[in-house]
Amino acid sequence: MRDDLAALLWSRRDRDLARASLRQCVHELQFLLAPIKPDILDATRNFLLLRLDHVWIDVRAGVVSADPFLNDLAGLDPAFDTWIATERRRISRRATALAEATLLQQSGPSGEPRLAIAAAEDLLMVDPANERGWRELISGLIAIGNRTGAHEAYRRCVATLSEITEAGPPADIHALIAGQPRQVERVRVNTPAPSQDRRPGLRLGVRPFRALGGGDTEPLSLGLAEEITAALSRFKWMFLIASPSLAALGSDPSPDDARWRELGLDFVLDGTVQRAADRVRVMVRLLDVRGIPEVVWAGRFDRAGNDVLNLQDDITAEAAARIDPELMLREGQRAVTQVPNDATAYDLTLSAIPAIYRLEETSFRAAGAALAEAVRIDPDYAAAHAWWACWHIFLVGQNWAPSPAVAMSRAAALAERAIALDPGDARGLTIAGHVRAFLYRRVGEALELHERALSLNPNLPLAWVLSGLAEAYAGRHSEALSRVHHAKQLSPYDPHTFFFDQALMLPHLLRKEFAITVELGHRAIALNPALTSTYKIALSALGHLGRTEEAARLGAKLLDIEPEFSVGNSFRRTPLLVPEDLELYVAGLRLAGLPE
């Protein structure tokens, strides 16, 4: 076993050097794993044994993932790459067979459509060209009355099969959708409407990146465009036009060019790649092309250029994580000022999002009314249900709900409906998870939903933040910090950074790192002085530090926003599960002088 591992990982070294390298790695692994479980890795002279009863392995558990097997370990050694490729084929065949078997159980006249939809999404994740998966997904969405979702699934089917098989969907799949009228259409503002039908969501095209200086930056520039397209396609409210379609146009975006108008794009993403010695610089810009092209966001990424695959992965993840909130905030603000009289559910949902995070009570309640209207107009629009559930979370958290119990029940119902309507929407899943954790203390169920969300879209900062909060509620504070820091790394200039900082405060408080907690609190309050949970965590830390005068000033601001606040109410509503954590939090509030 040791010789096999050494030959896989150090095939270009002689046998003794390879075994010495393996010994060093085993020693480091045992040192790192000892605090967790000393006997996870059992090492003898000739064998290494991983005790499977102490670890969880996604592939062994049958968990479906969109990412290739051991994706982050490719390129270590040619022999290891060959082994990985063989294992990927074997695992893919097994995962496809398991997913097909599950789908077979859930589909058909006696099956449950919503379970069939989830099973079909799992199958398509491992085998995107599987026609049965597309057929059952579209059939299931039609069966539950989600015509919007069925049309979107058909669009994905056409794009995927065209790319992989160079052929469109078979006639029977086309026949499924042919008789289904579109439920929601969106007309472009201030530009001619494109010839094709529009669905809720914005249309984004990614152009091939330009390699400045040519040379070995050419493959990276092409790969980046493809990877960013794939990453952004995971955000279900965007519709992506791939690079080859835009490359064929040649010219820059122009409202006077009929070929560009026919694409009906809202935004175009392009960029440049440049290498200097061992450094690579990537410039990315986002253009609003609904009139004269306007740069609305730009980012620069400087990286060491000695590991092209990791460089490509890092830039893709950060670019996708930054673009999504920028677009959502921009489109939300635009919708607030440009919602027409015949607004669609999509328009109304977008217009509500800025007010949810701004937390000014009057506009916040208006956002709730807009989301209620969106759900009324289109009962099958999953995003409207998910954001309305999120709105109810803040309604309870800010203590603005006339009946918290009714608001909690409504949030749960909306979140569950959002999942049923679109089980593949990562944002909806993570919001549903937060409902279960924050409002109902069902943290285990919440973490399952968060993990599902992250498997669907690992570049969604909100899912990392909310899963971090769930870990903090469960008492796993180091893991909580790791997840929230990852969100900040993905999107360091996120428009909702205040929420990320507030999420960091809780695990720092519960680790008794009170000074850091207060520092984060001041930073979060400066960015958004309306979020009451920020004040509460900061006040608990100030109480433990004995900074009573500062606590009195901050407490007065909290009571201005939430006059009904009391230590007793906070004790009853907090989602903390570990008694010691709850005691620490409440004791700090009392020491800060807050009313009982």
Structural description of this entry:
β7 and β8 form a beta hairpin. The chain has helices at about 1-10, 15-35, 80-105, 115-125, 130-145, 145-165, 170-180, 215-230, 245, 260-265, 310-340, 345-360, 360-375, 380-395, 405-420, 425-440, 445-455, 460-475, 475-490, 495-510, 515-525, 530-545, 550-560, 565-575, 580-590, and strands spanning about 40-45, 50, 200-205, 210, 240, 265-275, 280-290, 295-305. About 60% of the residues lie in helices and about 10% in strands. It folds into 4 domains: about 80-180, Alpha Horseshoe (Serine Threonine Protein Phosphatase 5, Tetratricopeptide repeat); about 200-325, TolB, N-terminal domain (Rossmann fold), CATH 3.40.50; about 340-475, Serine Threonine Protein Phosphatase 5, Tetratricopeptide repeat; about 495-595, Serine Threonine Protein Phosphatase 5, Tetratricopeptide repeat. The chain contains 25 helices and 8 strands. The protein is α/β, with parallel strands linked by helices and about 600 residues long. The radius of gyration is 26 Å and the shape is globular. Strands 3, 4, 5, 6, 7 and 8 form a 6-stranded mixed sheet that branches. Strands 1-2 form a two-stranded antiparallel sheet.
Helix-strand blueprint:
Layout: H1 2-9, H2 15-33, E1 41-43, E2 48-50, H3 78-106, H4 113-126, H5 131-143, H6 147-165, H7 171-178, E3 202-206, E4 210-212, H8 217-232, E5 238-241, H9 243-247, H10 258-263, E6 267-276, E7 279-288, E8 294-304, H11 308-338, H12 345-358, H13 361-377, H14 382-397, H15 404-421, H16 426-440, H17 443-456, H18 461-473, H19 477-490, H20 497-510, H21 514-527, H22 532-545, H23 548-561, H24 567-573, H25 579-591
Helix pairs in contact: 1-2, 3-4, 4-5, 5-6, 5-7, 8-11, 11-12, 12-13, 12-14, 13-14, 14-15, 14-16, 15-16, 16-17, 16-18, 17-18, 18-19, 18-20, 19-20, 20-21, 20-22, 21-22, 22-23, 22-25
